[in-house]
Amino acid sequence: MQRLPFATQKLTSRAVVTISGDDARDFLQNLVTADIASLKPGEAAYAALLQPQGKILFDFFVLAEDGRYVIDCSAARKADLVKRLAFYKLRAKVTIAESDEEVGVAPAKPANGTSFTDPRVAQLGARLIAPKGSLPEADDETYRSGRIRLGLADSDEDIGSGELFPHEANLDQFGGVSFKKGCFIGQEVVSRMEHRGTARNRIVPIHVPKGVPAKGTEIKAGDKLVGTALSSAGSDGLALIRLDRLKDAVESEIGLLTKTGPVHVRKPAWARFDVALPKDDE
Predict the structure, then answer these.
(1) Would you call 36 helix, strand, or coil by DSSP?
(2) d(CA 19, CA 207)
(3) Which residue of 42, 107, 176, 256 has the fewest C-beta atoms within 10 A of its own C-beta?
(4) Domain assignments of the chain as residue spans, ordered by start
(5) Are 105 and 6 in contact (CB under 8 A)?
(6) Nearest CA among 73, 62, 67, 156 for reference residue 116
C-alpha cells in the first residue's frame, strides 16, 4: 500500500492532552470507546468519548507511553475535552493536563522521538508528538486532500460534537470501538446499533466533477434527500450518505445530484460495509 507523498509537518488543528497517575488506564478504559487496556507502550488507538445517548462528543487518538497516555485531539476543543474528562475524574488517581507539545504527521514513522503509525490506514503514515516549536509548518494540501480521498473524516471539518454516532463516523471500521471490553459511556446505544445493524448513515468519499459544494449542501436522488456534503478538496470530498436511500437510487437508476452537478459515491478500500454503486462507478 503506497503512502501519500506529503511533507513532515505540524498539524495546527491538533493539540495534546495527557493522562497520568495510578488509575490512568482504568479511567480511560471505562470512559472511551476503544480498548485502552490492551495498548502496550508505543501503541495507539483511535477512540471517542460519547454522550450517554451514544453520539460522539470528542474523537481522538490515544497513545500509551510509560507513565502516561497521550491524547491527540482537536485543538479547538482541547479545553472542552479536559473539562469533560475532569467531570468524570471523581476520586480516580489521575492527572489530566493540557500539554504544549505539538502534533504532526510524517510519511513514515521516524527512528527517534514520540510517534505512532496512524491506526486507521497505513497510507497516512505516522503521527508525531513533539516539543513546542520543533515541527515544520508547511502549507501542504497533499495530506488533507489525501485524507479526503481515502474517506477519512476530520474531527472539526466532518465529525463535530454531538452530531454523529461512532458507526456514522466509521470508528467501528478502525478498531475505534470495542464491543468486547465491557461498559463505556454510551455503550448500550452503540452496541445495539452494531448487533441490530441499524447504522444507515456513513461518511464516505464522493467525487463531483464540477467541484464539491459547501459543507451542508444537500445531495439528492430526484426529490429524495440522500446525504449532505462535508469537507472537500476540489472535486473530491466527503459526505454523510444514507446508504439505504443510495441503494434505492442505484436500483432505480436515479443519479445523485447536488447544486454543482452529478455526484459519484466511492466505496473506500477499508470499508467492510456495503455501498451500492452504479456499474459505471464500480
Answers:
(1) helix
(2) 40
(3) 42
(4) 9-193, 202-281
(5) yes
(6) 62
pLDDT of 280 > 90? The answer is no
CATH topology of domain 9-193: Gyrase A; domain 2 (3.30.1360)
Closest listed residue to residue 103, CA positions, set 79, 66, 132: 132
DSSP state of 25: H
Provide, for the chain, the percentages of residues in helix, strand and coil under a 3-state DSSP scheme, each rounded to the nearest 5.
25, 30, 45
Task: Give the list of residues 6+ apart from residue 90 with CB closer than 8 angstroms, or none.
Answer: none
What is 101-141 written as a DSSP string?
A: -EEEEESS--SSSEEEE-SS-GGG-EEEEE-TT-SPP---H
Domain 202-281 of CATH type 2.40.30: yes
What amino acid is encoded at 278 in this protein? P
Q: What is the pTM of this model?
A: 0.96
Task: Answer yes or no: are the C-beta atoms of 81 and 60 closer than 8 Å.
Answer: yes
pLDDT at 138: 82
Predicted pLDDT of residue 1: 59
Other CB atoms within 10 Å distance of the CB of residue 279: 6
Residue 89 has phi, psi (to 5 degrees) of -65, -45
End-to-end Cα, the chain, rounded Å = 20
Cell of residue 238, nine digits: 466527503
- Residue 150 corresponds to which cell in the numbers above? 481515502
Asked if 62 contacts 31 with a C-beta cutoff of 8 angstroms, the reply is no
